[in-house]
Amino acid sequence: MATIQLRTAIPGPKSRALGERRTVAVPRGLSHATPVYVASAGDAWLEDVDGNRYIDFAGGIGCLNAGHRREPVVSAIRQQLGRFLHTCVQVTPYEGYIRLAERMNLVTPGKFPKKTLLLNSGAEAVENAVKIARAHTGRSGLIAFEDAFHGRTMMALALTSKTHPYKSGFAPLPGEVHRIPYAYCYRCSYGLQYPSCDLFCAQHLEDTFKRVVASEDVAAVIAEPVLGEGGFVVPPKDFFRRLIDICHRHGVLFIADEVQSGFGRTGRLFASEHYGIEPDLLVTAKSLGGGLPLAAVTGRAEIMDAPGPGGLGGTFAGNPLSCAAALAVLDIFEREDLLARANLLGLRFQQRAREWQQRWPIVGDIRGLGGMQAIELVKSPGLREPAADEAKQIVQYCYEHGLIVLTAGSYSNVIRLLVPLVITPEQTDEGMDVLESALQMVSEKKGTVSQSVPS
Q: Is residue 290 helix, strand or coil?
């Protein structure tokens, strides 16, 4: 039986009514990708208040790798509800926080002694990673990347690259942040090609220390192992090893922001594992909490201990319900082969997307790791002018036909997949059929002739 079941025009009358109430009650700065309002969800599907059912290729922006409302997660939350809701770990601590920190210290990359700080959100974890790095090094400077996204709070915004809508109107932002190009091979900032470039973008860090900011003034380099909001860009395999070697030669810490790429999304528990790297500090959030707000900073014990007592914390940070949910999520990854499913999902998508690329010139680049996949849309393959309007039309076509998808990228021209990893092969194909129809619609509107696909 098909998952997609549409009973009304999209949005339906109840969603439209809620939209009108929202316009009056909620500030316009809180935008949303679709005009449908959710009533229930499970595994990889959503149902709206009008009874329309959708396949979810967005996963709450990557927060539901283990699926919507998984029974082990719900059961763990219920059990914790029967004990207590909140005490504040800084007042009267509880075992759940300690158990989760112990698990995180075990499963994150690196065989060295580690400690974990629990927080509420990815942006909050980024801010605390910066505090810890500065406390440990006694330095204030930070180096971030073009096309990076690290959150919406002020320090995280300073590290974030994309100006609109994230940064516009919110200046001044914290200083001591310097930016260098990411290994975005499809749009290389230096006009070079891999591998003949010899990873010039990584080696450029040395030049940055000579021409922009002295290495002895830099506390850390922060990077996403796979760009998230920046367009699901996967760097060459040796990029981070080269970068980290340079960092450590200069006493600079490396912070891996795995808020979106962590917890099985890329076919490994953490994307850092694909590159064989061991970050000094690892930032996680999103799917860690299984749908509840939770984030973490995990790192080398001696670095994590740099701030003094009382220097780190938060009233609701590491709250008991979220800790219980996260422990259940980690159990799910131990029991179920979600990593293999992520890799199969990626292969299934790549196979279909390569066919689309041959048929429609609008599909400029296809990239990803495991279940973190994307297509970059362009006006033409030669000039690679971003096709942002077309991406917006595809998102609308998809939700009007029962599929929830999101855009990404500094130019908003990337369609990304953040599918719950519990999705069935039938649901995957059903969703990709809708996405294919959306690409065909946009291509025909542009007047692009569909080319035959070799058998």
A: strand
What is the CB neighbour count within 10 angstroms for residue 384? 15
Q: What is the pLDDT of residues 246-286, one digit of tens each?
A: 999 999 999 999 999 999 999 999 999 999 999 999 999 99
Alpha carbon distance 398, 48 (integer Å): 15
**302 vs 113: CA distance, rounded Å:** 8
Domains in the chain and their CATH numbers? 13-62+338-446 (3.90.1150.10), 72-335 (3.40.640.10)
Task: For strands 403-404 and 53-56, give the pairing.
Answer: parallel
Contact 147, 224 (CB under 8 A): no
* Exposure class string for 392-428: b at 16+ Cβ within 10 A, else e: ebbbebbbbbbbbbbbbbbbbbbbbbbbbbbbeeebb
At residue 448, the pLDDT reads 57
- Tens of pLDDT, residue by residue over 31-86, are 999 999 999 999 999 999 999 999 999 999 999 999 999 999 999 999 999 999 99
Q: Residue 370: CA atoms inside 13 Å, Cβ hemisphere, count?
A: 27
Instruction: Specify the 3-state DSSP secondary structure of 20.
Output: helix
Dist. CA 36–CA 18, nearest whole Å: 9
Q: What 8-state DSSP symbol labels residue 453?
A: P
pLDDT band at 453 (very low <50, low <70, confident <90, very high): very low
Contact between 358 and 454 under an 8 Å Cβ cutoff? The reply is yes
The three-state secondary structure class of 167 is: coil
Residue closest to 150 by CA, chosen among 103, 220, 65, 214: 220
User: Rounded to whole angstroms, how far apart are CA atoms 372 and 229?
Assistant: 12
**Nearby residues of 215 by Cβ (< 8 Å), 6 or more positions away:** 209, 250, 251, 252
Strand order in the sheet with 363-369: 363-369, 372-377, 414-417, 406-408
Please, what is the Cα angle at 119 between 285 and 70, to 5 degrees?
Answer: 45
**Inter-axis angle of helices 425-446 and 338-359, nearest 10:** 20
Smallest Cα–Cα separation from 159: which of 172, 170, 148? 148
Sign of the alpha-carbon dihedral angle for 357, 360, 363, 365: positive
d(CA 375, CA 360): 12
